[in-house]
């Protein structure tokens, strides 16, 4: 009889783990990408499902720092989740995640996050989308019509290899403004943001990564954009396009300068950005909303509170609130209980209690609201949460609110 055991994956099984990941995710990466995956996996917490000593499933978690309202928190970023096609739907994922949470807690990570391959999977494990991104398209066949004057500082294209050192301060600044963003190492800049090693060029019709910076050499940059371009069809066919991966600015005029630049690149007629914050200032700045259109909104980062009191007391609170929360959590028994949350601009306490609840809610819904990107009141209205005390959800919403919506870009 075959038996399946859930246990840590040792270093000398990394190649076996990579083979499983690439099989399950239909990948056959070139050597640099495989090496990069190996390096990432080596630094992860790794839980494997073994059948007769052979790896048939795995779940891994990176140790990342996620910006949360008022600061940042260690976060287990799930990745590489894979179950062999021969072993699916036997409960291996469930067993591996159950084994992962104590390991994440021991490593001091009160949050877990992931990009979901399929939205149907992760709600049952206490995850919910905590950030959303908009896809934006600009009609660049005419000059971009904005309601403010662009920042007049000069724009310059830089060597992408120089971008991490030059642009990290600006990116870090954006993390203090918006929750939901991960701290980036130089390696992540190179592989994920700039894709220097993984060579996008050739994989599609877009050219190599370009980086444009606002501000003269020696000045602190006022903003930057990471993008690629595709030329138009010959003989007057479809015009070319600009694909924006990331754009950060120190204010609206700087953003206006960068968007105007992108929309004015010759031989292109469209600017597309695949992941923008839902409250991107560009949407306010556009004088003509037919020229700047949101073409889609998708859930971005899925979040789970793996240590609920630690997570709630670590974020900042916009307004005073004192409520007893009756939390439903099918997977973490320590969370399936009542907590008294006393929070406000001066700090927060969250302790177990037996007092009567003001609000009954699912752990996943608390996760959805944690970064300030969603509200609980609609859930009460729609019967997914229960307010035992009138106005409890509205008070919690007011306390959770943030000035900027949370946002997660295209990478971890
Ligand atoms: C963070 C990331 O890495 S995202 C990448 C996730 N990985 C992939 O998509 C790779 C391809 N898929 C797989 O490897 C596997 O099918 C997994 C990991 C998605 C699921 O693993 P399994 O071991 O089959 O899941 P398990 O048997 O534990 O199922 C748990 C529950 O989720 C449900 N479920 C699992 N996968 C799916 C799915 N794709 N769609 C809908 N429901 C799903 C199961 O029906 C089951 O429901 P139940 O609890 O009501 O019975």
TrEMBL record:
Sites where the protein binds acetyl-CoA: 81-83, 89-94
One Pfam family, short name: SCP2_2
Any Gene Ontology biological process: aminoglycoside antibiotic catabolic process
SUPFAM superfamilies (alphabetical): Acyl-CoA N-acyltransferases (Nat), SCP-like
Keyword RNA-binding: no
Residue stretches making up the N-acetyltransferase domain: 4-149
Active-site residues, Swiss-Prot/TrEMBL: 122, 412
Keywords: Acyltransferase, Transferase
InterPro entries with a match to the protein in the record: Acetyltransf_17, Acetyltransferase_Eis, Acyl_CoA_acyltransferase, Eis_dom, GNAT_dom, NAcTrfase_Eis, SCP2_sterol-bd_dom_sf
Single GO MF descriptor: aminoglycoside N-acetyltransferase activity
PROSITE patterns: GNAT (PS51186)
Family: Belongs to the acetyltransferase Eis family.
HAMAP family: Eis (MF_01812)
Subunit structure: Homohexamer; trimer of dimers.
Protein name: Acetyltransferase
């Amino acid at each position: 009889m075959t038996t399946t055991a859930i246990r840590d994956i040792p270093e000398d099984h990394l190649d076996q783990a990579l083979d499983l990941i690439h099989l399950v995710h239909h990948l056959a990466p070139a050597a640099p990408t495989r090496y990069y995956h190996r390096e990432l996996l080596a630094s992860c917490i790794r839980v494997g499902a073994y059948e007769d000593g052979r790896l048939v499933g795995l779940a891994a978690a990176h140790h990342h720092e996620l910006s949360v309202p008022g600061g940042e928190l260690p976060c287990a970023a799930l990745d590489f989740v894979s179950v062999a096609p021969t072993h699916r739907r036997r409960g291996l994922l469930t067993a591996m995640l159950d084994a992962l949470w104590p390991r994440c807690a021991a490593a001091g990570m009160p949050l877990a996050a992931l990009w979901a391959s399929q939205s149907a999977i992760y709600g049952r494990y206490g995850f919910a989308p905590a950030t959303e991104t908009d896809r934006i398209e600009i009609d660049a066949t005419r000059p971009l019509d904005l309601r403010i004057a662009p920042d007049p500082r000069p724009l310059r294209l830089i060597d992408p290899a120089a971008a991490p050192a030059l642009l990290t301060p600006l990116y870090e600044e954006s993390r203090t403004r918006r929750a939901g963003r991960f701290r980036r190492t130089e390696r992540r800049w190179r592989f994920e943001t700039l894709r220097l090693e993984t060579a996008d060029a050739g994989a599609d019709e877009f050219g190599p990564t370009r980086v444009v910076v606002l501000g003269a050499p020696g000045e602190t940059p006022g903003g930057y954009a990471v993008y690629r371009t595709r030329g138009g069809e010959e003989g007057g066919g479809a015009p070319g396009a600009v694909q924006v991966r990331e754009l950060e600015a120190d204010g609206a005029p700087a953003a206006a300068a960068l968007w105007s630049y992108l929309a004015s690149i010759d031989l292109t007629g469209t600017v597309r950005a695949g992941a923008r914050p839902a409250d991107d200032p560009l949407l306010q700045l556009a004088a003509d909303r037919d020229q700047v259109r949101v073409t889609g909104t998708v859930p971005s980062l899925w979040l789970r509170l793996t240590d609920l009191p630690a997570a709630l007391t670590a974020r900042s609170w916009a307004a005073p609130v004192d409520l007893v929360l009756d939390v439903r959590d099918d997977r973490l028994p320590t969370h399936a209980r009542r907590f008294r949350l006393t929070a406000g601009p001066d700090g927060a306490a969250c302790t177990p209690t037996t007092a009567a609840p003001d609000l009954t809610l699912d752990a996943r819904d608390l996760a959805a609201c944690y970064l300030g990107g969603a509200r609980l009141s609609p859930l009460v209205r729609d019967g997914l949460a229960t307010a035992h005390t009138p106005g409890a959800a509205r008070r919690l919403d007011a306390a959770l609110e943030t000035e900027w919506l949370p946002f997660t870009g295209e990478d971890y």
